[in-house]
Amino acid sequence: MRIVLLSGGSGKRLWPLSNEVRSKAFLKLLSSPDGGMESMIGRTCRGLKEAGLLHCCCIVTHHTQVEITRHHTGGGIPVLGEPQKRGTFTAIALAAAYFHSVEGADLDETVIVMPVDSFVEPSFFNLLRRLPVSLADSGADMALLGTVPRFPSEAFGYIVPKSGKSAGGHFEVGSFIEKPDKAIAESLISRGGLWNCGVFACSQRYLLSCMADREIMPLYSGMLKRYDSLPQESFDREVVEQTSRSVVLPYDGIWNDLGSWDELSGYLKNRITGKGKISEDSSDTHLVNELAIPVHIVGAPGLIVAASSDGILVAGKREASRIKGELEAGAPQPMFEEKRWGSCSILDISKSQHGRETVISKVRMLPGTHTSYHLHRSLNEVWSISSGSGEYVLNGVMRPVSEGDSIVIPPGSPHAIKAITLLEFIQVETGTPPVKEDIERLSLDWNFESSE
């Protein structure tokens, strides 16, 4: 059995904490069993590990989220980076090609696909083990998980089963209904309708046949090279809903995609996260503040106030999702990014009259971590070390670096830096915009012999 975790999203519904690089899956706002905080992707991986399934997994995400994904998962499972977003069909096809051409998966092996950021109970992960059994017992091409509804939601799609549960606990699928109004949702629930939680299973053979129907060769490297020409389709609409022989296995437990501030606030441990205060008469108001300055809320009930280096949101909880529409024209460049080695906060972006762009950032690297070995084609880079110690490689030569040092990196010069202790420095990048896209990665490894 193999599991594909789909990670993506535009990062707009939980703005300003989420953005194009740090989607909701990476927000460390949920309580963990050890008393700390964890992200949705971290919670999912923990649940899969406890169920003995994490070793079966790979994650598919946009290439801009590969580093942050590795940071949150510890790098123990494969992370496949899409060159561009082409919809869930192509994302799943990329995983199938990886299983086939890289890992040599058996054609009859079951592949389970699920979102990486669902909020569920441990029983959900144990139920995944029954999907291959339901496929075998029913002879169906597709097996799905459906959540028993707690109320008639208008925000979720529904799986409507045919009557008659099998001995294995699954139903034949009758139809799919996408986000009905409340009256229709009530009717669907009365007929046994289940929330569609985006989890399905089929054989590797079936996935490859769907690819063959669209003339996609299951070669991982070949797909990456021609990714921009591949179909931009939804797997749900193009495959799942078109499969004539499907069964659904009910899951009777907590399930939520925590896709809005209204939903997420109900799972926050405290009303205040970060610096700030909420007055006693501001009932049912939550503050999530990532800034170094405090936020005070006085006499304002029922609000979500979220602040980060990307911006500040002040909204009634039930209306907070409207921010997605406000950002449809194009969200600003993310000012904060998590990396597998730490974080990078943009302090200032400016452009000269000649069109050159300068980006000033504060970089924070965790002990023992390192950047990729990379170069910039036209970008000039300067590091000014403010605290900590480490070592860096420039044009193949390794040198130590510590507080007070400055390093100039000319265009076209391969370089990387490693933190020995916690390492913080100011980074100044100057070049032709967009500066952040001028990068060519040469290696993710740190295999250098000291030259000095």
Automatic annotation (TrEMBL):
Any one Pfam family match given in the protein's UniProt record, by short name: Cupin_2
GO biological process, one term: GDP-mannose biosynthetic process
One term of GO molecular function: mannose-1-phosphate guanylyltransferase (GTP) activity
Keywords, alphabetical: Nucleotidyltransferase, Transferase
Nucleotidyl transferase domain: residues covered: 4-264
Chain ranges of the Cupin type-2 domain: 363-420
Keyword Transcription recorded: no
Top-level taxon: Bacteria
UniProt cross-references to PANTHER family, sorted A to Z: MANNOSE-1-PHOSPHATE GUANYLYLTRANSFERASE
Entry protein name: Mannose-1-phosphate guanylyltransferase
